[in-house]
C-alpha cells in the first residue's frame, strides 16, 4: 500500500495543488481527478486554514482565527479526509499531518 501525506499549507488549493504529498512532493489537484464537490470542500478547508494569518500584517502576533472559522475547520477536516480516502481508493493510505486548529 502506498502512502500519501495530507498536509495543508497556505494557499495551495487556490494554486492548483492538492494537500496530498507523494514522496515529499505536493501533487496537482488534477492528478487525482476529484469531483467538484471534493474540490469545493478542499478549497473551503484551505481558505479556513489561511485565516490563521493576518495577511494585512503577517507578523501580528495578536491575530486569532475566529471561533466560528476554527469550529468549521475542525468539523470539516475529518469529513474531507474520509471523502479523500474513498476517492483515492484502498491502494493509498492517507497519513494526516494537519491537525485541528
Structural class: alpha+beta
How many helices in DSSP terms?
Answer: 3
Uncertain runs are none
User: What is the string of helix and strand elements?
Assistant: EEEHHHE
Mean pLDDT: 93
What's the β-strand tally?
4
The total domain count is 1
Instruction: Tell me the Rg in angstroms.
Output: 14 Å
- What sort of overall outline do the alpha carbons produce when their principal axes are compared? globular
Classify the helix fraction into a percent range: 40-55%
Please give the alpha-carbon distance between the first and last residues.
29 Å
In percent terms, what proportion of residues is strand? 15-25%
Quaternary status of these chains? Answer: single chain
Major sheet attributes: 4 strands, mixed
Strand order of the largest sheet: 3-2-1-4
What this model shows, in words?
- With 101 residues, this protein is α+β, with helices and mostly antiparallel strands.
- It has one domain (2-96).
- It is built from three helices and four strands.
- The chain has helices at residues 29-32, 36-50, 67-88, and strands at 2-6, 17-22, 25-28, 92-96.
- A four-stranded mixed sheet has the order 3-2-1-4.
- Strand 2 (17-22) and strand 3 form a beta hairpin.
- The longest helix is centred in the C-terminal third of the chain and has 22 residues, at 67-88.
- The termini are far apart.
- The model has no long low-confidence stretch (mean pLDDT 93).
Amino acid at each position: 500500500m502506498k502512502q500519501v501525506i495530507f498536509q495543508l499549507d497556505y494557499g495551495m488549493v487556490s494554486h492548483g495543488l492538492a494537500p496530498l504529498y507523494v514522496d515529499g512532493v505536493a501533487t496537482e489537484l488534477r492528478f487525482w481527478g476529484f469531483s467538484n464537490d471534493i474540490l469545493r470542500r478542499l478549497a473551503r478547508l484551505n481558505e479556513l486554514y489561511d485565516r490563521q494569518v493576518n495577511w494585512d500584517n503577517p507578523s501580528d502576533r495578536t491575530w486569532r482565527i475566529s471561533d466560528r472559522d476554527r469550529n468549521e475547520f475542525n468539523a470539516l477536516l475529518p469529513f474531507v479526509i474520509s471523502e479523500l480516502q474513498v476517492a483515492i481508493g484502498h491502494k493509498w493510505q492517507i497519513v494526516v499531518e494537519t491537525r485541528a486548529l
